Fold:
Amino acid sequence: MKANETNVLSLIGGLDKVFIIPPFQRNYEWGYEQCSELFNDIIKAYTIKRNHYLGNIVYFVGENNGASYNEFILIDGQQRVTSILLLLCALRDSEDNDSLFNSINKRYLVNDTGDNRYRIRLKQTAYDSECFTEIIDRNFRSMSSNNISRNYFHFKKLINSCTISPKDIYETITKLEVVDVNLQIENDLAAIQTIFEKINSTGKQLTPADLIRNYLLLANNSFEQEQLYHKYWVKIEKRIKNENISRFARDYLILNIFEDVQEKNIYKMFKEYFENANIKHKVILNDLYKYSEYYEWLKFENCPFEKINKVIKILNYVKSDDVYPLYLYLFEKKFVDNKTELLNILNLISDFMIRYRIVSPSGGGGALRAVVHQLLEKLNSGIILDDYDSIYYELSNSNTPAGRFPNDTEFKNSLMDSVNTTYAKLVLVKIEEFEKNNELVDLSKITIEHIMPQTLTDWWVNNFGSKELAESIYEKYLNCIGNLAPISKSYNSKNSNKSWQEKRENLKDVQFVITSETYKFEQWDEKNIKKRNNNISNRACKAITSPLDRTRKYQTKNSTNNFESGLYPISDLTTPMSGTKLEYLIFEDQNFQVTKWKNLLNLVCLIGYNYDNKQFEKLVIENIIHKATSKTNYPLKDPIISKNKKLLIDAKKIGDSIFYSEGTISSQRARVYSKQIMDFFGLTDKIQIYVKEK
Structure:
């Protein structure tokens, strides 16, 4: 490594220098705040006549240096260098001064070279390259809107509002000191990217997307890295936009591990999972590219199949981002071969989400995510089929009370009590669609009319008989579904706080039947509000799918109808056993009673401990068999066996040992972990379990 103190223009300037931002670097992320701070530092340096330290610029010399140019690969300082060049462009374009224009352009922005690849002094990432080039070339007509263009115009605005001339600002930039750090590393991409990650752990924090790009683009050589970057990553960025990649990566990870992932752990869990799975980066990138198309449809509501796109709009309207991993799974399984069933399933989930949002079972987003993760795990493991009936049954029988599919009683009571007008709008329009077989109207063009207005005028107080009675009715019924009606936005301004007689005349010609039918009420009093409240809520229960009756034992095609009671080897993880009853385990011709799936793991642990307690201790200490998450044991994986009860959700003591096993696991995970433990001891072939239909 070689470091020298210099100023930023001396570093950037000079004949035929080319700075290149490598593929693993983040895109240009600076905003107005950072650019304003940089500009103010320059103005301050001009005012007090002192230099200002800008930071380190870290790079290594590229492979393609020649007699006519020198290639420098930026590892740290990309954001600052890009911003300085944007400021120089803004200074160049702020006044009609040929001398200033030529000085900036020739010294710092473009190279006079026959090779077009190195004409621009700073080669941006593919995401920012086009816009940056357009600014360098002053081609503003076709310029896209992103951080590059926004900051260029922001600098122009700062320059125009400043009392210091562009020429003086330009000359003051030489007072920005940097440390020129040449890493003197050649062709060691792994070392270079590790340095990049370490350096960028300070300052503006790298996003999960930045770190995942860094990880996935790690290749054997720069040529292979460029191929991965342009074939996959650039296309993913263009599809779903850079700002959405972290969330997309999180949803893709959940699709694989069926566990919740906190934002701060996205990169760590992503890297650990795929490294443990030993999946090549090219394979991961190819898979991400495939799923990015579905994610684009979901995020930007541009699915080419219009009927599905309409449902996507509803799913986004009810804020179902937590369900995205399930949607990705369904699109991959169904879109090509069975769009009709995919449409039916998405409609089912949209109805589930409407009820869920209105009833708001306690538990919040965590409970909803738990439902999604359990469903994904069952679908992936083959416990249930990916058809409408199976998913309908699973949603209706969630074992997470806070994530349940609200029934008609809950739904009706919530609608009749007080409902969020955003969701009420959707419910009312859905009723209209269901009853009249009309196309769903664009919700953005509709507003909700409070028939009894949100502000009680004297007329409305007199209408209800007294101030006290009016306040009581107002508090009880203002936001109930019976007092709400969908109308166009122009009608809403027409009605305002008018009397019922005036509103009644206006509402009778509204396009929505569910609104115009209110004309039949000659009075809008408590009796009629209650009547319509009951009527609309009953109609909502019919229009929006309700859960299956829990007492109704619906059997899927892959359920216990095709299951035969009997002995199964512990190694069998493919036979669907959802809804079955575990009776006993056989080990070396000895029967062990175990009637609950959650106790299977504990019994298998006891067998392993009694077989070789030293090896069992090694299994626990090294956490050889573990969960995919790191919630309780960060930065390590959460254990399923531990000495520390606090690391387990439901700790169950293993015989007389000092160890505990996890008690809160699904039947499928109990089978998986039990097999892994027996594999560790080499006892897999010696264990069978007896399972029968309930």
User: Anything to note?
Assistant: Confidence is low (pLDDT under 50) at residues 551-561. The longest helix spans residues 339-359. Residues 223-410 form one domain.
